[in-house]
């Protein structure tokens, strides 16, 4: 699994029929210190994440299982919206502090 920040949405009117109704998010990866990495990922959203939220993504066959159908052509899925991240007893990220 990987930490990421929601940067936007990806909209496609023409797509595989198994992806109808699946929200796609544009994510920027984050390291354990909360620093933005230069890597991006498009992931299916299974938890209703919003812009600027920190999320946890799963990749590969685990991502397909999250959506309940292994036939969907998905490489990554958002599986959690993060509330807090602690590294060595230090708060790196707190969702409630982000919007103050």
UniProtKB/TrEMBL annotation:
A single GO BP annotation from the record? photosynthesis
Asked whether the keyword Transcription is assigned, the reply is no
List GO terms (cellular component aspect).
carboxysome
Q: Which InterPro entries match?
A: CcmL, EutN_CcmL, EutN_CcmL_sf
Where does the protein end up?
A: Carboxysome
Record's keyword annotation contains Cell cycle:
no
Q: Which UniProt keywords apply?
A: Bacterial microcompartment, Carbon dioxide fixation, Carboxysome, Photosynthesis
Gene3D superfamilies attached to this UniProt entry: EutN/Ccml (2.40.50.220)
Which Gene Ontology MF annotations are present? structural constituent of carboxysome shell
Q: What is known of its domains?
A: The tight homopentamer forms a pore with an opening of 4-5 Angstroms in diameter which opens into a wider tunnel at the base of the truncated pyramid. The pore is positively charged.
The family this protein is said to belong to: Belongs to the CcmL/EutN family. CcmL subfamily.
What is the role of the protein in this entry? Answer: Probably forms vertices in the carboxysome, a polyhedral inclusion where RuBisCO (ribulose bisphosphate carboxylase, rbcL-rbcS) is sequestered. Has been modeled to induce curvature upon insertion into an otherwise flat hexagonal molecular layer of CcmK subunits.
Provide the assembly information: Homopentamer. Interacts with full-length CcmM.
Q: What name appears for this protein in its UniProt entry?
A: Carboxysome shell vertex protein CcmL
